[in-house]
Amino acid sequence: MIGFLRGVLSRKHPPVLVVDVGGVGYELQAPMSTFYALPAVGDEVRLYTHLVVREDAHLLYGFATEDERRLFRDLLRVSGVGPKIGLALLSGMNVEAFLVCVEAQDVESLVRVPGIGRKTAERLLVEMRDRIRALGEGAAPGRPAAGGGAAAEAYAAMVALGYRPAEVTRLLQKVGGEVAGTEDIIREALKLAAGK
User: Which homologous superfamily does the CATH classification assign to the domain defined by 67-194?
Assistant: First the structure.
Protein backbone atom coordinates (compact mmCIF):
# COMPACT_ATOMS: atom_id res chain seq x y z
CA MET A 1 0.00 0.00 0.00
CA ILE A 2 1.24 3.52 -0.81
CA GLY A 3 0.58 5.76 2.22
CA PHE A 4 1.73 9.07 0.78
CA LEU A 5 3.76 10.60 -2.02
CA ARG A 6 6.21 13.48 -1.76
CA GLY A 7 7.69 14.89 -4.91
CA VAL A 8 7.43 17.60 -7.53
CA LEU A 9 4.01 18.48 -8.89
CA SER A 10 4.48 18.13 -12.63
CA ARG A 11 0.90 18.40 -13.91
CA LYS A 12 -2.53 19.34 -12.59
CA HIS A 13 -5.69 19.13 -14.67
CA PRO A 14 -8.72 18.31 -12.46
CA PRO A 15 -9.35 15.61 -11.49
CA VAL A 16 -5.90 14.29 -12.56
CA LEU A 17 -2.50 15.34 -11.28
CA VAL A 18 0.98 13.91 -11.70
CA VAL A 19 3.66 13.88 -8.99
CA ASP A 20 7.27 13.21 -9.99
CA VAL A 21 8.85 11.10 -7.24
CA GLY A 22 12.50 10.41 -8.03
CA GLY A 23 11.93 10.35 -11.78
CA VAL A 24 8.72 8.28 -11.66
CA GLY A 25 5.49 10.13 -12.48
CA TYR A 26 2.61 8.97 -10.31
CA GLU A 27 -0.77 9.80 -11.81
CA LEU A 28 -3.45 10.44 -9.20
CA GLN A 29 -7.05 11.53 -9.15
CA ALA A 30 -7.98 14.06 -6.50
CA PRO A 31 -11.05 15.98 -5.33
CA MET A 32 -11.32 19.74 -5.86
CA SER A 33 -10.74 20.29 -2.13
CA THR A 34 -7.22 18.95 -2.70
CA PHE A 35 -6.70 20.91 -5.93
CA TYR A 36 -7.42 24.16 -4.07
CA ALA A 37 -4.54 23.33 -1.68
CA LEU A 38 -1.98 22.38 -4.36
CA PRO A 39 1.14 24.47 -4.92
CA ALA A 40 2.22 25.69 -8.36
CA VAL A 41 3.47 23.20 -10.96
CA GLY A 42 7.17 22.62 -10.31
CA ASP A 43 6.87 22.96 -6.52
CA GLU A 44 7.17 20.16 -3.99
CA VAL A 45 3.94 18.54 -2.82
CA ARG A 46 3.02 15.86 -0.30
CA LEU A 47 -0.25 13.95 -0.70
CA TYR A 48 -1.91 11.18 1.30
CA THR A 49 -2.93 8.38 -1.03
CA HIS A 50 -5.40 5.56 -1.43
CA LEU A 51 -4.93 2.77 -3.97
CA VAL A 52 -7.95 1.11 -5.59
CA VAL A 53 -7.19 -2.17 -7.34
CA ARG A 54 -9.66 -3.18 -10.04
CA GLU A 55 -9.61 -6.00 -12.54
CA ASP A 56 -8.65 -3.62 -15.35
CA ALA A 57 -6.65 -0.91 -13.51
CA HIS A 58 -4.79 0.23 -10.40
CA LEU A 59 -6.05 3.72 -9.53
CA LEU A 60 -4.28 6.03 -7.11
CA TYR A 61 -6.20 8.81 -5.34
CA GLY A 62 -4.53 11.76 -3.64
CA PHE A 63 -5.65 13.96 -0.73
CA ALA A 64 -4.28 17.11 0.88
CA THR A 65 -5.18 15.98 4.42
CA GLU A 66 -5.47 12.77 6.41
CA ASP A 67 -9.11 13.67 7.21
CA GLU A 68 -9.99 13.82 3.50
CA ARG A 69 -8.46 10.40 2.92
CA ARG A 70 -10.18 8.92 5.98
CA LEU A 71 -13.57 10.25 4.83
CA PHE A 72 -12.95 8.94 1.30
CA ARG A 73 -12.18 5.49 2.68
CA ASP A 74 -15.30 5.55 4.88
CA LEU A 75 -17.41 6.60 1.90
CA LEU A 76 -16.15 3.63 -0.12
CA ARG A 77 -17.56 1.31 2.57
CA VAL A 78 -21.08 2.66 1.95
CA SER A 79 -23.18 0.40 -0.27
CA GLY A 80 -23.39 1.80 -3.81
CA VAL A 81 -20.68 4.44 -3.31
CA GLY A 82 -17.51 4.16 -5.37
CA PRO A 83 -14.47 6.37 -5.91
CA LYS A 84 -16.28 8.56 -8.44
CA ILE A 85 -18.99 9.51 -5.92
CA GLY A 86 -16.36 9.88 -3.19
CA LEU A 87 -14.43 12.40 -5.30
CA ALA A 88 -17.63 14.24 -6.24
CA LEU A 89 -18.61 14.57 -2.59
CA LEU A 90 -15.19 15.85 -1.51
CA SER A 91 -15.20 18.23 -4.47
CA GLY A 92 -18.60 19.64 -3.45
CA MET A 93 -17.93 20.08 0.28
CA ASN A 94 -15.09 19.70 2.73
CA VAL A 95 -14.86 17.18 5.56
CA GLU A 96 -16.31 19.52 8.19
CA ALA A 97 -19.29 20.43 6.00
CA PHE A 98 -20.01 16.73 5.42
CA LEU A 99 -19.85 16.03 9.16
CA VAL A 100 -22.39 18.77 9.81
CA CYS A 101 -24.68 17.37 7.08
CA VAL A 102 -24.60 13.91 8.65
CA GLU A 103 -25.10 15.27 12.17
CA ALA A 104 -28.08 17.35 11.01
CA GLN A 105 -29.33 14.57 8.67
CA ASP A 106 -29.35 17.23 5.91
CA VAL A 107 -30.31 15.44 2.68
CA GLU A 108 -30.82 18.69 0.76
CA SER A 109 -27.19 19.82 1.08
CA LEU A 110 -25.94 16.45 -0.13
CA VAL A 111 -28.19 16.30 -3.20
CA ARG A 112 -26.83 19.71 -4.30
CA VAL A 113 -23.49 17.99 -4.92
CA PRO A 114 -23.30 16.91 -8.60
CA GLY A 115 -23.57 13.12 -8.91
CA ILE A 116 -25.33 12.60 -5.55
CA GLY A 117 -28.97 11.58 -5.91
CA ARG A 118 -31.56 11.52 -3.13
CA LYS A 119 -31.31 7.74 -2.51
CA THR A 120 -27.52 7.89 -2.32
CA ALA A 121 -27.70 10.90 0.02
CA GLU A 122 -30.14 9.13 2.33
CA ARG A 123 -27.96 5.99 2.37
CA LEU A 124 -24.89 8.11 3.17
CA LEU A 125 -26.64 9.78 6.09
CA VAL A 126 -27.76 6.48 7.58
CA GLU A 127 -24.52 4.54 7.10
CA MET A 128 -22.13 7.38 8.02
CA ARG A 129 -23.90 8.41 11.24
CA ASP A 130 -21.84 6.04 13.42
CA ARG A 131 -18.56 6.71 11.60
CA ILE A 132 -18.48 10.49 11.87
CA ARG A 133 -17.35 10.64 15.50
CA ALA A 134 -13.79 9.59 14.60
CA LEU A 135 -13.68 12.13 11.77
CA GLY A 136 -15.10 14.94 13.91
CA GLU A 137 -12.44 14.64 16.61
CA GLY A 138 -9.84 16.33 14.40
CA ALA A 139 -11.87 19.45 13.54
CA ALA A 140 -9.91 22.64 13.99
CA PRO A 141 -11.09 25.75 15.88
CA GLY A 142 -13.37 27.97 13.85
CA ARG A 143 -14.70 25.08 11.78
CA PRO A 144 -18.03 23.42 12.46
CA ALA A 145 -17.47 20.06 14.12
CA ALA A 146 -19.87 17.19 14.53
CA GLY A 147 -21.82 17.45 17.72
CA GLY A 148 -23.46 20.83 17.41
CA GLY A 149 -22.47 24.15 18.93
CA ALA A 150 -22.94 27.69 17.66
CA ALA A 151 -20.69 27.25 14.60
CA ALA A 152 -22.55 24.10 13.52
CA GLU A 153 -25.93 25.80 13.99
CA ALA A 154 -24.74 28.83 12.01
CA TYR A 155 -23.47 26.53 9.29
CA ALA A 156 -26.81 24.69 9.02
CA ALA A 157 -28.74 27.99 8.97
CA MET A 158 -26.63 29.47 6.17
CA VAL A 159 -26.87 26.31 4.06
CA ALA A 160 -30.66 26.49 4.56
CA LEU A 161 -30.51 30.09 3.27
CA GLY A 162 -29.05 28.75 0.03
CA TYR A 163 -25.31 29.32 0.48
CA ARG A 164 -23.02 26.60 -0.87
CA PRO A 165 -21.44 24.40 1.86
CA ALA A 166 -17.88 25.24 0.79
CA GLU A 167 -18.67 28.98 0.81
CA VAL A 168 -20.26 28.76 4.27
CA THR A 169 -17.22 26.95 5.66
CA ARG A 170 -14.92 29.63 4.20
CA LEU A 171 -17.02 32.42 5.72
CA LEU A 172 -17.16 30.74 9.14
CA GLN A 173 -13.40 30.29 9.14
CA LYS A 174 -13.02 34.03 8.48
CA VAL A 175 -15.40 34.85 11.34
CA GLY A 176 -13.20 32.72 13.62
CA GLY A 177 -13.77 31.73 17.23
CA GLU A 178 -14.05 35.24 18.71
CA VAL A 179 -17.79 35.50 17.98
CA ALA A 180 -19.79 33.34 20.38
CA GLY A 181 -23.55 33.21 19.71
CA THR A 182 -25.18 31.56 16.70
CA GLU A 183 -26.98 34.75 15.61
CA ASP A 184 -23.79 36.80 15.95
CA ILE A 185 -21.82 34.28 13.89
CA ILE A 186 -24.48 34.33 11.16
CA ARG A 187 -24.58 38.15 11.20
CA GLU A 188 -20.79 38.41 10.80
CA ALA A 189 -20.71 35.73 8.08
CA LEU A 190 -23.48 37.50 6.13
CA LYS A 191 -21.53 40.78 6.37
CA LEU A 192 -18.48 39.03 4.94
CA ALA A 193 -20.59 37.46 2.17
CA ALA A 194 -21.96 40.92 1.26
CA GLY A 195 -18.43 42.35 1.25
CA LYS A 196 -19.08 44.77 4.12
Answer: 5' to 3' exonuclease, C-terminal subdomain (1.10.150.20)
